[in-house]
């Protein structure tokens, strides 16, 4: 039957298309492979692994190999542990280094931040100062424009003056109603004051230039004074010696503008010419300035004094110098203990003129007062009765000196007054004894002549020389007259009171005695001899 089945199946398969047979065979193969794979995975491999594990666990040789393997792993474990610890130490060192670097970086950033803030504040202050400076210049321009408008408004009246009114006699009927009493009234002639003719000031005018002269002579001409030669020759005889001229060394700190101003004063006062000034430059210039001048003189030769002034300003009037002068001005503050008031104010004004010469007199005073204490600034402004914008520099210095001398400067006790007060206290504690041979009688002081031939000390009581107030006879007579009713019991008190030294400076302890003496003296002047 099976062979019959196979034969029939063969005949049947022959009738089936080969593609269908191939497809069925491939599907059957896939199903068989899948079944076998599942069987291997689920049944054969687990049982095989379990048997192998069972055999391995039950094998007696396995424990020995395991122990040997552990012993071999111990050095490797220690080596790995040491390396890990080294790596950990390196990481800790790097961590601390990174932390210190981070702190240093944080500090640098903080310093940079503060520096940037300071620079920003400085720039802001400079901008504010420039803004204030521009506002001041604008106000100054406005004031000048107002003055110009006022001058322009007065020009028509000066150019075309109104016609002079003719003096006419008043009519007679203006005096009396009665015509017989009228008379011709002639007003007395008004005396005309002679107009003082001011002599024209001698101005310095440049020499007229001819064609073909160099350009520097046009920009910096030679000096020419319009004055008589005989008069000029007499004035030249009074020119100070070169050794009396102020020198300039060109080393910081310096003020070349003030030095040039002094020379210009000599030029105007003594009518100096260019060669008279330039010939003295080798003497009045010293150190760095002299070396610079000699090098420039060899290069350019003879030039006018105006040319040399411009060269000196270009050389020494640098921005760095102006910045240093400004720093000196801002750092120099006035203190009430400073006794050289005029010197400090003049120095500050010269510094201001050095780096801000275009400021007006009002701005000079304002900036200088900012360097003074607030109390002095307010006191000066309140003491000045006019408009603050009209206050000049000299008035400000005079007011400041008066305020400091009278109100603000603290009166400190001198060494002499403290010594005398100590002497007075020691005399009261330890009165002199009559049996003491070291102290001489006070009358010997009176008779001893002075070594210099002077008249001697002056009494503060009677204002006469030759004795002290404690030995004044008028004072003793006054005490006898005023205290005559007290009797002889108070003679000891009078003697101790007369021992007081009235010639020492007044202090808080002897103010009452001075008031009493002044009161008694006033009583004597008004014939009030009886005590009140």
From TrEMBL:
GO terms for biological process: mRNA processing. Residues 479-490 have a biased composition (Polar residues). It comes from the Eukaryota. Pfam families: zf-CCHC (PF00098). The keyword Membrane does not apply. Residues 458-474 form the CCHC-type domain. InterPro entries: Znf_CCHC, Znf_CCHC_sf. Residues 491-515 have a biased composition (Acidic residues). Residues 416-429 have a biased composition (Low complexity). Residues 409-532 are annotated as: Disordered. Keywords: Metal-binding, mRNA processing, Zinc, Zinc-finger. Residues 433-446 have a biased composition (Basic and acidic residues). The keyword Metal-binding applies. GO terms for molecular function: nucleic acid binding; zinc ion binding. This is CCHC-type domain-containing protein. It comes from Puccinia striiformis f. sp. tritici PST-78.
């Amino acid at each position: 039957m099976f062979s019959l089945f196979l034969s029939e199946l063969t005949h049947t398969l022959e009738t089936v298309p080969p593609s269908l047979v191939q497809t069925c065979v491939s599907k059957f193969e896939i199903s068989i492979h899948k079944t076998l794979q599942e069987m291997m995975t689920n049944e054969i491999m687990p049982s095989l692994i379990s048997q192998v594990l069972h055999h391995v666990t039950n094998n007696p040789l396995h424990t020995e190999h395991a122990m040997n393997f552990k012993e071999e792993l111990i050095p490797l474990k220690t080596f790995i542990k040491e390396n890990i610890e080294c790596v950990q130490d390196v990481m800790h060192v790097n961590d601390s280094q990174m932390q210190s670097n981070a702190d240093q970086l944080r500090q640098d950033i903080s310093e940079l931040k503060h520096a940037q803030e300071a620079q920003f504040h400085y720039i802001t202050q400079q901008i504010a100062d420039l803004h204030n400076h521009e506002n001041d210049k604008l106000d100054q321009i406005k004031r000048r424009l107002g003055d110009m408008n006022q001058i322009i408004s007065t020009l028509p009246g000066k150019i075309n003056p109104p016609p002079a009114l003719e003096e006419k006699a008043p009519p007679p009927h203006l005096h009396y109603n009665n015509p017989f009493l009228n008379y011709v009234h002639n007003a007395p002639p008004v005396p005309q004051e002679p107009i003082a003719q001011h002599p024209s000031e001698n101005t310095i005018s440049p020499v007229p230039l001819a064609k073909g002269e160099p350009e520097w002579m046009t920009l910096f001409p030679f000096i020419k004074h319009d004055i008589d030669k005989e008069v000029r020759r007499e004035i030249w005889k009074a020119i100070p010696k070169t050794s009396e001229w102020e020198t300039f060394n060109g080393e910081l700190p310096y003020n070349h503008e003030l030095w040039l101003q002094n020379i210009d004063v000599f030029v105007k006062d003594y009518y100096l010419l260019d060669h008279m000034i330039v010939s003295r430059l080798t003497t009045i210039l010293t150190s760095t300035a002299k070396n610079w001048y000699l090098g420039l003189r060899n290069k350019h030769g003879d030039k006018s004094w105006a040319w040399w002034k411009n060269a000196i300003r270009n050389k020494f009037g640098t921005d760095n110098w102006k910045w240093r002068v400004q720093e000196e001005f801002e750092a120099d503050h006035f203190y009430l203990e400073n006794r050289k008031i005029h010197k400090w104010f003049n120095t500050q004004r010269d510094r201001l003129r050095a780096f801000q010469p275009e400021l007006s007199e009002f701005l000079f005073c304002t900036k200088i007062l900012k360097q003074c204490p607030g109390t002095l600034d307010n006191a000066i402004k309140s003491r000045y009765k006019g408009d603050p914008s009209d206050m000049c520099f000299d008035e400000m210095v005079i007011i400041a000196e008066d305020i400091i001398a009278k109100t603000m400067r603290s009166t400190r006790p001198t060494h002499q007054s403290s010594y005398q007060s100590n002497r007075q206290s020691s005399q009261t504690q330890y009165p002199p004894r009559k049996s003491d041979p070291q102290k001489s009688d006070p009358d010997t002081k009176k008779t001893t002549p002075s070594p210099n031939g002077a008249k001697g000390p002056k009494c503060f009581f009677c204002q006469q020389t030759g004795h002290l107030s404690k030995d004044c006879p008028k004072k003793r007579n006054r005490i006898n007259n005023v205290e005559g009713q007290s009797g002889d019991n108070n003679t000891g008190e009078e003697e101790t009171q007369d021992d007081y030294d009235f010639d020492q400076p007044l202090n808080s302890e002897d103010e009452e005695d001075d008031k009493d003496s002044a009161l008694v003296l006033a009583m004597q002047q008004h014939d009030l001899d009886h005590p009140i």
